[in-house]
Amino acid sequence: MRYEKQTAKLTRALTGMSHSQALHMARTRDCERRNPVPDAHCAHQRAFEARLTFALIDAFPDNLQPPGAPWGIAAVRADTTSLDILPAAGICDDLLAALLPYHDRAYGGIRGASGTRVTNTDDGWWTLHDLDTGAQVRVAAPAPAIPHRTRPGVATRACRLITAPRLTREEHRDLSYFERLAQSSPDGWLEHRNVLGSRLLRRPGLIRTIAEVHGSANIYSHSSTDVVFEWCCGPSSDDIIRACRRAGVTADLAGHPLPGTAIDRGSDFSARLHVGRAELYLRHNKWICPGEQPELSAQ
Ligand SMILES: [Zn+2]
Prior knowledge:
The protein has one domain (37-287). 35% of the residues lie in helices and 18% in strands. The chain contains 10 helices and 12 strands. The strands form 3 sheets. The protein has a 5-stranded mixed sheet with strand order 1-2-7-6-5. The protein has a 5-stranded mixed sheet with strand order 8-9-12-11-10. Strands 3-4 form a two-stranded antiparallel ribbon.
């Protein structure tokens, strides 16, 4: 019983789920101490969640992170087959605008998560699904919360795409890029990148830990192939490594070991955490601190 309560406490801190939900999952062994947030069991679901994560990383750079709500997410409800996202107050439209795909001519490609469509906007939930695989994620949003107001000129194109019956040419190009990349990468790389992306989306509490002192962390990616956490004050790199491990980011996947789970200490980065063949870089960088840049602002 003590084990279950401790697990549920961790689950709750990472997800924002209610105590009773978390305790129920601990009792049914859907979450455990070594991985306190359930993984999506289906590879298609993990792939879809990862695409959403990288869309959020792209849309919410450091200076646009709402304080205390990484990527605009206040909490999630996660189990082995589904994921529900609860946006922070006032950020719902921005969150949906970040997830829904649109063609950005200036950027020359798709912003948002390619292949995402909206199937339902009833009951206070938007159901987003992957056109190819049918994987689903729900976002709590009062209908109609269509993101008209967020980015001038974007909403119309986003709306047109999210009702399109098949992939547009740009979306197809975007998605096939990763398939090609996977062919020239180590075995399992894309699958492990999807595990990492899905796990981060399911753990908003972990991102809050990194950002706890200055309210936000700089989270970025090199072309959606890896993830970098950069922060200034507060926790040390070792604290964040421990937090990632405690949160189950490097845990085995449904009993199958993720090969290569290890830490490297690099020169450019404080540490590099392997999640199978995918990589999570940790960069403890005091120079991004608002209080550490007087010379820069004086120039
Ligand atoms: Zn700082």
